[in-house]
């Protein structure tokens, strides 16, 4: 990253469900991070840690309970006119996890892709609209004959491509990909990931990539955030995170990835994580601290010193 | 080791409006006592159809076992009647399905569902079955089994549900357990727990497992032997070390290269070009040939037989024919092969 222009700033984002009731759920609880223009930020964590909710709150599928999401300095949430929302919707798009559930089975592929084009009035004529749909299909590796088919006629990988084409239809700058490859085969996963990478280069896109497959996340992301119970535990450049994970939860998560290497698998030791192992005092201030350049860890003052010492000693070796 | 299940030259077709889909085209494999055999391949390669045919769970309306044998305890399951199969399912051979959200009955308590096979197959009394169900829940690591027994599936998390499904599958200590992508719907940490649990239980009740998955990381973790399927056939079979460190079939090479390892850098991921074969009109010759960068003329004309690499390792590719030209496998695979050679050399030195 040469120029570090902040595209999106998330400040103390909170997303609670059932507020005030006994079953209040704090899905996202005080999240702060930035996404720079042109980068891919990966968000990982186990199911229920709030990573999908984070994505959905950022794009305003949920109204945030508290905190701010600033896109190019402007707040995404709060009262807005229809025109403002429309303008914002063009800049930010989402790719969903399940390519079977996220496409309307009663709409033709051309209708699915052109919906955004119609809403934002991006096509001058019917011919122009069809031309746009066809070129989008070709961009994602399908052909123009596919435009008149229905979603059920496609395989999982192809459907995910349709989902990507739909997201691209309005020329967005920022795409939230919520587990876009989890439902796909290994060989198809590689295709979709390569496609996302290619598109990023061509169209100068910024991604928030949400997933639980850590090896793919490392491959596609510049920086990775690890979430646990609605909070970020660690945020670091991908290489750094894998080489020197600091937070015990990150270590536990990394130790759980199955690798296609039988020797490694035989000798693997799985590290369990128990949040109570920190023994935080009530008085202690637990927050994100920068342990190494651009490497943030959620920790107390005492842990901060410890992590810093360990990190430095690792560097020397 | 004793063979517990033998599948011989199995052919299965589906009758559709478009014609006859030859989903399985001559599958042969053996399952030994106490081992875990992993079957890998992309969607549509026939892994699930193969295992469903062992359980005879394919829809009788449009599917047909054209030929072949499935030998289990000297009985040919391919010819067994529905009545005979009902005695085998859940007792001698049981199955864990991919999605724990849909494979449990939402209107029955967990306890009832675990007791069902015990009452049916082992003819236990209700109170005995209940006792055994409690033990099973405990065995699969579900805390407070007395409370949990009376609860419904929706009160369990995904990982816990999969544990319940495993408890049901193991209730009658089956000889063969078929696990069809049991961890695909779970996330990494839970996946690890379930895999450990399955390995642990396998030792305790001495069952053989057929493990279907497309996640090679999981395969490396659980499998003793691996069978790679493509286009309704097994194209390579060997021990887990042989498949991961010394693969011979170009399709296996493709599968292995398309996975990023944790030290893969920025280069593009390898993608197997093209799309799976159309099994309505299976191609003449090797089904993988159109997608195979190493394909030779003969691949388009004649199907390769299984060539023997070692006692346990076989692969169906003409590249193994003595007259075939030497080819360079992809970089990622070469690294693995070097490691394999080193290991082999090491074990000789150690006088193994």
TrEMBL record, chain A:
Gene3D superfamilies: P-loop containing nucleotide triphosphate hydrolases. It comes from the Bacteria. It holds the Pfam family ABC_tran. Keywords: ATP-binding, Nucleotide-binding, Transport. InterPro entries: AAA+_ATPase, ABC_transp_ATP-bind, ABC_transporter-like_ATP-bd, ABC_transporter-like_CS, Oligopep_ABC_C, P-loop_NTPase. PROSITE patterns: ABC_TRANSPORTER_1, ABC_TRANSPORTER_2. The keyword Cell membrane does not apply. GO terms for molecular function: ATP binding. Residues 8-254 form the ABC transporter domain. SMART domains: AAA. Belongs to the ABC transporter superfamily. This is Oligopeptide transport system ATP-binding protein. The lineage of its organism: Bacteria, Bacillati, Bacillota, Bacilli, Bacillales.
């Amino acid at each position: 990253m040469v120029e570090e222009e902040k595209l999106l700033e998330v400040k103390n984002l909170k997303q609670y469900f059932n507020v005030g009731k006994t079953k209040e759920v704090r899905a996202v609880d005080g999240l702060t991070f930035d996404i720079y223009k042109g980068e891919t930020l990966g968000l990982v964590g186990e199911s229920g840690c709030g990573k999908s909710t984070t994505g959905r709150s950022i794009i305003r599928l949920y109204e945030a309970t508290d905190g701010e999401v600033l896109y190019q300095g402007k707040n995404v949430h709060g009262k807005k006119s229809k025109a403002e929302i429309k303008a914002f919707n063009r800049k930010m798009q989402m790719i969903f996890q399940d390519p079977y559930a996220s496409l309307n089975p009663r709409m033709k592929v051309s209708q699915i892709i052109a919906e955004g084009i119609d809403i934002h009035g991006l096509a001058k004529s019917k011919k122009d609209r069809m031309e746009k749909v066809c070129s989008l299909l070709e961009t994602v590796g399908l052909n123009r004959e596919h435009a008149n088919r229905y979603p059920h006629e496609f395989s999982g990988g192809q459907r995910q491509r349709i989902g990507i084409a739909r997201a691209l239809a309005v020329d967005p700058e920022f795409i939230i990909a919520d587990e876009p490859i989890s439902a796909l085969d290994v060989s198809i996963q590689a295709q979709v990931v390569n496609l996302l990478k290619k598109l990023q280069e061509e169209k100068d896109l910024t991604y928030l990539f949400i997933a639980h497959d850590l090896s793919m996340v490392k491959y596609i992301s510049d920086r990775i955030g690890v979430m646990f119970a609605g909070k970020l535990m660690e945020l670091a450049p991908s290489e750094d995170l894998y080489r020197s994970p600091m937070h015990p939860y990150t270590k536990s998560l990394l130790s759980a990835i199955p690798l296609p290497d039988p020797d490694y698998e035989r000798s693997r030791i799985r590290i369990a994580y128990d949040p109570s192992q920190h023994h935080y005092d009530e008085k202690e201030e637990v927050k994100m601290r920068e342990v190494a350049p651009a490497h943030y860890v959620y920790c107390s003052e005492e842990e901060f010193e410890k992590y810093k010492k360990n990190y430095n000693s690792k560097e020397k070796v | 080791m004793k063979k517990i299940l033998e599948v011989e030259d199995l052919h299965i077709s589906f009758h559709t409006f478009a014609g006859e889909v030859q989903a399985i085209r001559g599958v042969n494999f053996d399952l030994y006592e106490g081992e875990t055999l992993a079957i890998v391949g992309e969607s549509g390669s026939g892994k699930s159809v193969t295992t469903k045919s062992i359980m005879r769970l394919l829809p009788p309306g449009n599917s047909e076992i054209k030929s072949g044998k499935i030998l289990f305890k000297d009985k040919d399951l391919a010819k067994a009647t529905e009545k005979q199969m009902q005695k085998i399912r859940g007792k001698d051979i049981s199955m864990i399905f991919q999605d724990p959200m849909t494979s449990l009955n939402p209107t029955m308590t967990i306890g009832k569902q675990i007791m069902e096979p015990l009452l049916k197959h082992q003819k236990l009394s209700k109170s005995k079955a209940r006792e055994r169900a409690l033990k099973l829940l405990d065995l699969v690591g579900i805390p407070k089994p007395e409370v949990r027994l009376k609860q419904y599936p929706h009160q369990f998390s995904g990982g816990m549900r999969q544990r319940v499904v495993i408890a049901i599958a193991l209730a009658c200590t089956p000889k063969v357990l078929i696990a069809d992508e049991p961890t695909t719907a779970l996330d990494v940490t839970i996946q690890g727990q379930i895999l450990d649990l399955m390995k642990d239980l396998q030792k305790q009740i001495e069952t053989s497992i057929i493990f279907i998955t497309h996640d090679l990381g999981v395969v490396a973790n659980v499998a003793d032997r691996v069978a790679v399927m493509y286009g309704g056939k097994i194209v390579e079979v060997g021990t887990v070390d042989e498949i991961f460190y010394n693969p011979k079939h170009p399709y296996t090479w493709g599968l292995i290269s398309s996975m990023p390892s944790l030290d893969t850098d920025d280069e593009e991921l390898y993608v197997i070009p093209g799309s799976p074969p159309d099994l309505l009109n299976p191609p003449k010759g090797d089904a993988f040939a159109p997608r195979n960068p190493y394909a030779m003329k003969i691949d388009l004309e004649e199907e390769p037989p299984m060539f023997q690499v070692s006692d346990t390792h076989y692969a169906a590719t003409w590249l193994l024919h003595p007259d075939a030209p030497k080819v360079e496998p992809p970089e990622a695979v070469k690294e693995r092969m070097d490691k394999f050679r080193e290991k082999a050399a090491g074990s000789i030195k150690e006088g193994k």
